[in-house]
Amino acid sequence: MKRIVNFSSFNVFSIEKETWDVEYHNHNFYELIIIENGRGLHHLNGITFPYKKGDVFLLRPSDGHEFTITNKTRFIYIKFTEHYLWENVLMNKKNELKKVIQLLLEDQTFVYESAIKNKQDRIHLLQLAHILLHEFSHKSMYHKETAADLFSGIITILIRNTMNNNSNKKQISKKLSKIERILYYLNVNVLDPDKMKIENLAREFLLSPNYISIYVKKQTGFSIQQHIIQYKIKTAEKLLLQSTYNINEIADKLGFNDTSHFHKIFRSYRQMSPSEFKKTSIAK
């Protein structure tokens, strides 16, 4: 089997093909392949299944694959090494997320079909991939930092969908402690008000609403609400720097009562207002 070798730790590009002209192969890197449009068949490790627009495939270095194209297809490729992942994604993740990402890269959570099932996530991931492709290609100011953050967002969406797969959830549950699973759940669902309700959170982890609050505080030293606020502040920072939302819209999106409440909470955690944070960060 042919082996494709890439000496770059991170690479993003798109190609459009009417016929597939690369023989069955594997790589010396990890690869995310996003189907921008088109249809066909994906042959992966001896298994064949159809692909369509919005599908996302995660390949490890040892995975052998090729495509059969039935409708002209545009692919977006994100190639990365384990070193790049550690230096630019995992360093900024909580320990429980680090473990989930590591498990995602191992065989026991392997997904042959598209790794993204949620309809809205398919749309968002494709949008992020387009922005990432632009940043990587145009080399604007802070393009490396922006690309790393965008890639981190893509990986987080990927693991959220992986965790929604029941068989993968069982595998990951064996590897993570209960508190790690709770914190992971809080992190990836922090913008979903319904899932953040204590009764729903307790039901997810088979605990009583009263006890789960006590349990989280005992295990981490912080309350559930403190964890939620911390995750919201981190999300607010990214939205301030990487989106076109204004501060009122960000406050609403993050579920704060009003803009003044958002300002008060943000300042208490970052010792500056949201607008000051944005101005200071852009000036660096």
Structure notes:
With 284 residues, the chain is α+β, with helices and mostly antiparallel strands. The N and C termini lie far apart (48 Å). The protein folds into two domains: 2-161, Jelly Rolls; 178-284, Homeodomain-like (Arc Repressor Mutant, subunit A). It is built from twelve helices and seven strands. The relative contact order is 0.09. Helix 7 (198-204) crosses helix 8 (209-220) and helix 9 (224-242) packs across helix 12 (274-283).
Q: Roughly how many Å is the radius of gyration?
A: 20 Å
Helix content: 40-55%
**Mean pLDDT across residues:** 84
Give the end-to-end Cα distance, rounded to a whole number of Å. Answer: 48 Å
Q: Could you list the spans in which at least 5 consecutive residues all have pLDDT below 50? A: none
CATH class of the largest domain: Mainly Beta
Number of helices: 12
Count of distinct structural domains: 2
Quickly list its features:
five-stranded antiparallel β-sheet; single chain; 7 strands; alpha+beta; 284 residues; Arc Repressor Mutant, subunit A; 2 domains; Jelly Rolls; 12 helices
Give the topology, please.
Layout lengths: L1 E3 L5 E8 L7 E3 L2 E15 L2 E5 L4 E4 L5 E16 L1 H7 L6 H10 L14 H20 L4 H21 L2 H10 L2 H11 L9 H7 L4 H12 L3 H19 L4 H7 L5 H12 L3 H10 L1
Parallel strand pairs: 1-3
Antiparallel strand pairs: 2-7, 4-5, 4-6, 4-7
Structure described in brief:
This protein is an alpha+beta fold and 284 residues long. The protein has 12 helices and 7 strands.
